[in-house]
Amino acid sequence: MRRSTFIITFFLLSALASACAQRTNVPQSDNPSTQSQIDAVRLPMGYIPNVQFAPFYVAQDYGYFSEEKIAVEFDYSFETDGIALVGANNLQFTMASGEQILLARAQGLPVVYVMAYYHAYPVGVVAFPDQNLKTPSDLKGKKIGLPGLFGANYIGLRALLKVGEVSEADVILDSIGYNQVEALIAGQDQAVVIYANNEPIQLAAQGYTVDLLKVADYVQLASNGLVTNERTLTENPDLVRRMTRAILRGMTYVIQNRDKAYEICTKYIPGLTESDERVQREILRATVEYWKAQQMGFSDPQAWQNMHDLLLEMGLLQSALPIEQAYTNQFVTP
């Protein structure tokens, strides 16, 4: 999930708890919290308000967090800030991607991934048809735009280069910030690294045909998810269970009621009602596909091993880590 320093705070209204009981088509919790104390949680999201966070907005609007005795404040700060704050136990949770967890643990931060949000790595590379981008090996020799040499975009590109047996020295990397669509259209770059559930849809809406290489079509990597720390796991595992339960309920609702979920998003995303509704609805539809899994929230051990090995090869990890300590499925296993 990409970054922004823009922060918007949503305060939970007590009226939501009673109002949600009057709504229809709302999944019910199998194990509602019985505790009386309200836990305040500030949750760094890692990106600006966006339809990709629809499950969180649904969980807020329908009172799923409230039922679990959690008052959530959404914080749209930098992803790495969230990791640092959770690692220092200044916050209990953040949203972050798999590589961030491994890199943080290598630096001694005791962060632990507790729920998968995306079940496939959403990063890809797009180019116009004249670039003949059909396989990862076709990236060789191309000028490729990406936000920078950091984060999920960079990791995803390196994964594709590895599959195509292309070295970083064989391409020209152009750090362009989050301006991939504009850079591609302007001809600044021959290809750009994107989120497959976002920029390709924007390009198609503007009438452009592109070739898309999805990382997930070639390798499974640990992607975005909910992260806590070892102290919270030890001292307050019930909070972790309640938090994951509320988010998973939100995900289930959005999958089953996408149109209604989109309407809820308009309450939480400034300017969404003025956006191109067709494009934003299509982005939500594409994002939903990344949530679907036989068991939502479950972390694939092989995806973590693949991510670990890629980071070692890139030199971002100096030595092997005990991967099993970086994630747990205890809070998503029935």
Notes on the protein architecture:
The protein has 334 residues and is α/β, with parallel strands linked by helices. It has two domains: 15-119 and 222-325, D-Maltodextrin-Binding Protein, domain 2; 123-217, D-Maltodextrin-Binding Protein, domain 2 (3-Layer(aba) Sandwich). The protein has 13 helices and ten strands. The strands form three sheets. It has a five-stranded mixed β-sheet, with helices on both faces. Helix 6 (151-163) links the parallel strand 6 and strand 7 (172-175). Helix 2 crosses helix 10 (237-256) and helix 5 (98-106) crosses helix 13. It is globular and about 60 Å long. The relative contact order is 0.18. Residues 1-28 have low confidence and may be disordered.
Please name the CATH architecture of the largest domain.
Answer: 3-Layer(aba) Sandwich
* CATH C-level of the largest domain: Alpha Beta
Major sheet, described briefly? 5 strands, mixed
Cα end-to-end separation:
27 Å
Number of strands: 10
CATH superfamily of the largest domain: Periplasmic binding protein-like II
Going by helix content, strand content and strand pairing, the class is alpha/beta
Topology:
Blueprint: H1 15-19, E1 39-44, H2 54-61, H3 64-67, E2 70-75, H4 79-87, E3 94-96, H5 98-106, E4 111-116, E5 123-127, E6 143-146, H6 151-163, E7 172-175, H7 180-186, E8 191-195, H8 199-205, E9 211-214, E10 225-229, H9 230-235, H10 237-256, H11 258-265, H12 277-291, H13 301-314
Parallel strand pairs: 1-2, 6-7, 6-8
Antiparallel strand pairs: 3-10, 4-10, 5-8, 5-9
Helix pairs in contact: 2-10, 2-11, 5-13, 10-11
